[in-house]
Amino acid sequence: MLRLTPDGAPAPGNPNAGLLVYSLGHRNVQGLAWDSAGRLYATEFGQNELDEVNRIEPGRNYGWPRVEGTGDTDGGRYTNPLVTWPVREASPSGMAIAADTAYVAALRGERLWTFPLSNGTAGEPSARSPEGGDLTAANPGTRRLLPAGIGDLSG
User: Fold this and answer.
1) Rounded Cα distance, 40 and 26, in Å
2) For residue range 42-66, what is the model confidence (pLDDT) as tens digits?
3) Which of 2, 43, 98, 106 has the maximum number of C-beta atoms within 10 A of its C-beta?
4) How many whole angstroms separate alpha carbon 137 and alpha carbon 152?
């Protein structure tokens, strides 16, 4: 991931002064969300087997292309994900966090994964499928699923 100022310069506080790189080893980030403490999380497509949710920290290497999902950290060189799913169960896209719960849209809008967050760690994920159509948005403020074509009506 790159972190930069609006004028394109490296952001203050990046792990290596003068560089845009904030973290590395990401394959295909699909969604980003911050919790109430300001911690950054990302949903990512896996290569062949496992999709992931990572807690993003400056200077960390999340392993791709050498590690997919949880694996050998090579003595701390790589950071394991918080959550993994087989690609046939997830293919995650957007992510939202509200009231210490993460919401991840998945399977082209056919599934919503939720899991509790506590001090930067994730609890057990559970899945729901929307009734009568595809999920296009989750509004954590009201806990409602919106069918495809409706969009977010909250204004």
Assistant:
1) 14
2) 999 988 899 999 999 999 999 999 9
3) 43
4) 7
